């Protein structure tokens, strides 16, 4: 019986790109970033050790950073971003939940002009 990690790059891409208006792009050298309206909601390393960043609300930030394998994101922790350093620390359902919450937080904060251009709201 082989061990299957809770998350991998292919599954992460599938979850992120299933969200409406989500796009992907390589930024900062070798980080695969998922965005909505050109604002990142999830970023992960393509190479090297597994690390994924997500935006959280304050309550989730506190709860998640109490778990081993999840730390405040350097330079972004003041805005409640976490870095998940262990792909097994969350179940797939939890990954889906926190990715969607990150996406929704970014989506709701998009400027009105961006929301209109994406067709999220009517002109």
UniProtKB/TrEMBL annotation:
UniProt cross-references to InterPro entries, sorted A to Z: YjbR (IPR007351), YjbR-like_sf (IPR038056), YjbR/MT2646/Rv2570-like (IPR058532)
GO molecular function, a single term: DNA binding
Statement: the UniProt record of this protein carries the keyword DNA-binding: yes
Key words of the record: DNA-binding
Alphabetical list of PANTHER family matching this protein: CYTOPLASMIC PROTEIN, CYTOPLASMIC PROTEIN-RELATED
Name this protein carries in UniProt: Predicted DNA-binding protein, MmcQ/YjbR family
């Amino acid at each position: 019986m082989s061990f299957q990690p809770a998350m991998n790059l292919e599954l992460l891409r599938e979850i992120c790109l299933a969200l409406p208006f989500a796009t992907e792009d390589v930024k900062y050298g070798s980080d695969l970033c998922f965005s909505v309206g050109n604002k990142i909601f999830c970023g992960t390393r393509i190479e090297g050790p597994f690390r994924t960043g997500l935006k959280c609300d304050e309550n989730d930030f506190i709860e998640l950073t109490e778990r081993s394998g999840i730390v405040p994101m350097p330079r972004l922790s003041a805005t409640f971003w976490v870095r998940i350093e262990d792909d097994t620390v969350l179940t797939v359902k939890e990954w889906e939940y926190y990715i969607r919450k990150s996406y929704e937080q970014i989506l709701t904060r998009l400027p009105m002009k961006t929301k209109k251009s994406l067709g999220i709201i009517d002109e």
